[in-house]
Amino acid sequence: MKSPRETINGLLRNKIRVIQARKGYRVSEDAIILTWFTYARRGETILDAGTGCGVIAFGIAAMSPQTVVIGLELQEALADRAIRGVRLNRLDKQVFTIRGDVRQADLLFRPSAFDAVVSNPPYYEPGRGRISLEEEKALCRHQTMMPVEDLFRVASVILKRDGRIALIYPASGVSRIKKAMTASGFEASRMLWIHSQERVEPGLLCVEAQRAAGKTLECKLVLYDAPGKRTAMAEAILSGENPDRNTAFNWS
Questions:
Q1: Listed residue (20, 33, 71) closest to 245, CA to CA
Q2: Which residue in 73, 128, 135, 218 has its CB near the most CB atoms, within 10 A?
Q3: What is the distance between the alpha carbons of residues 167 and 37, in angstroms, rounded to a whole number?
Q4: What angle do CA 69, 50, 191 make, to 5 degrees?
Q5: pLDDT tens-digit readout, 185-201
Q6: Smallest Cα–Cα separation from 168: which of 43, 3, 49?
Q7: What CA dihedral angle connects 159, 161, 163 and 165, to 10 degrees?
Q8: Closest residue by Cα to residue 136 from 75, 71, 50
Q9: What share of the chain is helix, strand, coil (3-state, %, to 5)?
């Protein structure tokens, strides 16, 4: 099931397990937060764009047993781990992994094929941040293969008319996200600002976008009460307790 260069790690209190390279790209808390943030409704078909080892796809499937998730991944090694992870988690009837380029998703899938697109895209723009010497890390962290503009562009084709796209991104890049949304005909329907601690500027932002969204609902998630001590809400989300998205925060 795994090679000596890989590990199997339990997440969401072992509700799911992922196969990861010991020295390659490793799953972060960002993916778990986005998994919770994404609304997965009964009977939906969701595309996990840039699925990596499959963590978001597995998490959505575990939290919503009637949901089908297609994981799209360009890198062969990551796609292989996602495929093996499907079997490991016994999700063969819910999660399907395809190797392909997210930038060509509008050619790989028929128009209006999905109810939702979810993605934890690379954060660093070309020319910014230290480039990893390991190709797997570099492609996962830097927007050499999946700029957010392309993500919104393909989503505008493959999403149903009332479909939505959800992603997590550095809060400092909110202007770029808004520009990409507008260019593709989307509006923010929900924005969750993620703070490491209270009274600290947000470091990350979860965004859900739809066509003609109307009002944008906003709220914040604080991760730590004190250094090393998670807030009750962050602990619930990261452990897979799946608190209700509608009542967990004061959306306004």
A1: 33
A2: 73
A3: 9
A4: 80
A5: 999 999 999 999 999 99
A6: 49
A7: 60
A8: 75
A9: 30, 30, 40
C-beta separation of 56 from 33 below 8 A: no
pLDDT tens per residue, range 106-155: 999 999 999 999 999 987 554 544 544 554 444 444 344 569 999 999 99
CA atoms of 37 and 25, how far apart (whole Å)? 22
Q: What is the pTM of this model?
A: 0.88
| Beta strand 95-99 pairing with 229-230 | unpaired
How many CB atoms sit inside 10 A of residue 49's CB? 27
Neighbour-count burial for 218-246, b at 16+ CB within 10 Å, e otherwise? eeebbbeeeeeebbeebeebbebebeeee
Q: How far is CA 150 from CA 146, 155, 190, 194, 199, in A?
A: 7, 8, 21, 24, 34
Residue 194 host element (H or E): strand 187-197
